Amino acid sequence: MLRVDQVDVHYGAAQALRGVSLEAEIGKVTTVLGRNGVGKTTLLRAIVGRNPVSGGRIEWEGRDLARIRSDGRARGGIASVPQGREIFPLLTVRENLETGFAVLPRAQRSVPDEVFELFPVLRDMLGRRGGDLSGGQQQQLAIGRAMVMRPRLLVLDEPTEGIQPSIIQDIGRAITYLRDKGEMAIVLVEQYYDFARDLCDSFHVMDRGQIVKSGTRAEMVDDEVRGLLTV
Ligand SMILES: Nc1ncnc2c1ncn2[C@@H]1O[C@H](COP(=O)(O)OP(=O)(O)OP(=O)(O)O)[C@@H](O)[C@H]1O
User: Fold this and answer.
1) CA atoms within 13 A on the CB side of 105
2) Which Gene Ontology BP terms does the record give (predicted)?
């Protein structure tokens, strides 16, 4: 279980998160929706240890993460698919996947078959450079790399951004598969409402650094939430 409790984040004097609280459970997709610039990426970066928090507390599996840096969090089972994907352009697809090994004990250093079952294109392109892949293929690679780390918490920052519809479907199927396996909690940040609604078990909508609406998927009244996402 991930517990984010009353978290504040500042960039200098500007406050980007104000008292943000949410929980994410194993076997569930928790989605965070919101327009550009409301603080979604800031929240994910705080969870993975890439943004220091100035108030509140983030707890993972009962441990306070305050003093644990991002590499320690990754070893503790937290993997991320960041905005912009952060693929290494000069490394091959295989090498990009193997960067996930760094957080694993030696005996577990293999690429799980399910990565290629979910994203067959990655097997076909193992020897190609990351930078030669299309945006959609890079997104699949970023998810595959996170899966290599055998996470128990997977955070994804707008995985559908700039991606063609057929690959969005593959990504949706992969997220559903990972949720249904029941071994990880998934936090999905999105602006694409329909995609998030179809996948999530619970939702939070952010506006100007705060959570302004939350509920279960059944409570997600389309018009009301959509209204909070349109500019
Ligand atoms: N490194 C930074 N330094 C200063 N301000 C920042 C920094 N990163 C983000 N911000 C500001 O913090 C606020 C929240 O940004 P954030 O990127 O978290 O929003 P977002 O909801 O993820 O938006 P997007 O969908 O565009 O990624 C914005 O006002 C942004 O300009």
Assistant:
1) 2
2) L-amino acid transport
